[in-house]
Each structure stands twice: as C-alpha cells, then as structure tokens.
Amino acid sequence: MAELRLLRRRGFHFRRQAPFQNYTLDFVEHGAKLVVELDGGQHGEVGHRQRDEIRDALLEREGYYTIRIWNGGIDTDMNGVMETIHRVLRMRRAGAPRSELPTRWK
User: Which of 27, 64, 79, 99 has the fewest Cβ atoms nearer than 10 Å?
Assistant: First the structure.
C-alpha cells in the first residue's frame, strides 16, 4: 500500500513486512503502535481466525492495536481505507480508549 507513504508528511512511518517476535506484520507504525493487516478470504476460516486472535492478543499485550482490512476493500475503496487508517492513527495519538477504535474496515 504505497498510499501509507503519504502519511509521512503527518509524522507517521509505516514499515512493511516487519518482523515482530515470531510473526511478520503486513504494516506497522511503531510510534502509534498500530498494525495494519490485509486479509484475504482465508482469514475468515476457523483456523486462520484462531491464529489471528492469538497473534492479536500478543500484540495487544505489547501495547499494539491491530486493524484488519479485507483485500477487497483496497480494490473498491482505497480512499475509505486510508481515511480509516488516518483516523485510527489520530485517535491513537490522542489516547482514545480501545473501545472507540474500529477493528476492521468494512
């Protein structure tokens, strides 16, 4: 998602395919402790969902917040995806409670 580079002007820097403990994160912004995962259809299957939940719980214990975006969302509404990511970044920076943050885009 080359669009994430546009957020550098606002003080955010995403790393792509970043190692984190025993995992590889699709995109991570360490300053805001935000992980963006792009999910294909297989992530809707029971086994994948369970692995995702375990990984997300580990990230949460480390203070990170994960937002999941279905691959189809990137194809159909990249502007909406980027608006959501930017909104979450601003909320994280402002210290918004986790309960106010979205966990999935569409």
Answer: 99
The full DSSP string for 62-99 is TT-EEEEEEHHHHHH-HHHHHHHHHHHHHHHHHT--GG
Mean pLDDT of all residues in 7-18: 90
| C-alpha to C-alpha distance for 94 and 54, rounded to whole angstroms | 27
Residue 15 clears pLDDT 50, i.e. is over it = yes
Largest CA distance in the chain: 39
pLDDT digits 0-9 by tens, 62-105? 999 988 887 766 667 788 888 888 888 988 888 777 767 666 54
- Cβ-contact 65, 27 below 8 angstroms: no
Tokens 């409670």 belong to residue: 97
